[in-house]
Write a sequence for this structure.
């Protein structure tokens, strides 16, 4: 597998080579090709070795975009064969820890390995993403002493100069370019456009957003965490792929508030049907529904309401708007 090949090549590197190797080159502008969506993390806040915290990678035009970056999502990014230095944009739907815990790792690893040779990361999310960023990476932030040591200690200066292929300029601090966003905002990218919508989750304690990304070859809607919502229906209208929180088995919600805040399969089927999407991807899955027979029952019940494709999401699953095709049978 590509993933094993990639990890094997990393493991084979010697310590000295790893320290003074030439810096990882950030991905150059990608040739125009099909937009690719990789599910990095399809789990919940509960610890799991099978499902990382929420995270998605969208490769579109010349950009590589992460949407949410929860615990272990960055590990999945590396397993997928991509690196922190490849990421150009980060979008956060809300600031529950299972959607943003690996933000620090993304920024610091990108800064450290990028060695001042790549543009600053473009970051978008609801308030208080700007304050969070300052509290993490500012001079008096959580990582302030670490960053200062990596800029000022001679051993770190040596490593930086090796990665940067020479030069004597003082290393810059990590400086993610942060924009706080709200429902109704539109971000224009390199061959893509992202619209911000309202998600129904844990307001007023956290502002919660959903995203729709339109590219030349199709469209994607990611709900973040949300229960059934007219706003999601409108945002996802006609999308090729709808990635929706599918937290629990329908009918088992302990309260109306729980149902309103968290997606379940029967409500998701209604949303997908009303929105007219082509493919519904189920994610943010509790372990109690992630079993044979229960999975099949959920998909079967969804298909009674929604006639499009249904995908049971898994970490490192890759999707395109065209969907998988099989040209011919394999001759075994």
């Amino acid at each position: 597998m590509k993933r094993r090949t990639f990890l094997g090549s990393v493991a084979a590197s010697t310590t000295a080579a790893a320290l003074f190797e030439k810096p990882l080159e950030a991905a150059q502008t990608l040739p125009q090709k099909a937009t690719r969506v990789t599910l990095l993390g399809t789990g919940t806040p509960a610890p799991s070795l099978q499902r990382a915290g929420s995270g998605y990678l969208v490769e579109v035009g010349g950009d590589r975009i992460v949407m949410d970056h929860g615990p272990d999502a960055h590990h999945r990014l590396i397993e997928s064969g991509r690196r922190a230095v490849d990421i150009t944009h980060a979008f956060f739907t809300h600031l529950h820890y299972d959607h943003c815990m690996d933000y620090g790792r993304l920024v610091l690893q990108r800064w450290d390995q990028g060695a001042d040779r790549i543009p600053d990361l473009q970051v978008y999310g609801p308030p208080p993403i700007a304050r969070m960023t300052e509290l993490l990476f500012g001079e008096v932030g959580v990582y302030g002493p670490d960053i200062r040591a990596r800029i000022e200690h001679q051993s770190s200066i040596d490593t930086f100069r090796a990665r940067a292929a020479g030069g004597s300029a003082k290393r810059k601090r990590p400086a993610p370019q942060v924009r706080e966003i709200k429902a109704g905002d539109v971000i224009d990218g390199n061959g893509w456009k992202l619209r911000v919508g309202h998600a129904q989750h844990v307001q007023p304690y956290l502002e919660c957003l959903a995203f729709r990304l339109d590219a030349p070859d199709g469209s994607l809607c990611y709900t973040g965490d949300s229960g059934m919502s007219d706003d999601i229906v409108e945002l996802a209208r006609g999308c090729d792929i709808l990635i929706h929180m599918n937290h629990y088995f329908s009918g088992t919600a302990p309260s109306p508030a729980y149902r309103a805040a968290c997606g379940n399969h029967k409500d998701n089927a209604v949303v997908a049907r009303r929105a007219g999407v082509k493919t519904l991807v189920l994610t943010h899955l509790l372990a109690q529904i992630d079993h044979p027979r229960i999975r099949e029952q959920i998909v079967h019940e969804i298909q009674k309401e929604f006639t499009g494709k249904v995908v049971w999401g898994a970490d490192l699953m890759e999707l395109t708007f065209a969907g998988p095709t099989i040209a011919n049978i394999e001759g075994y």
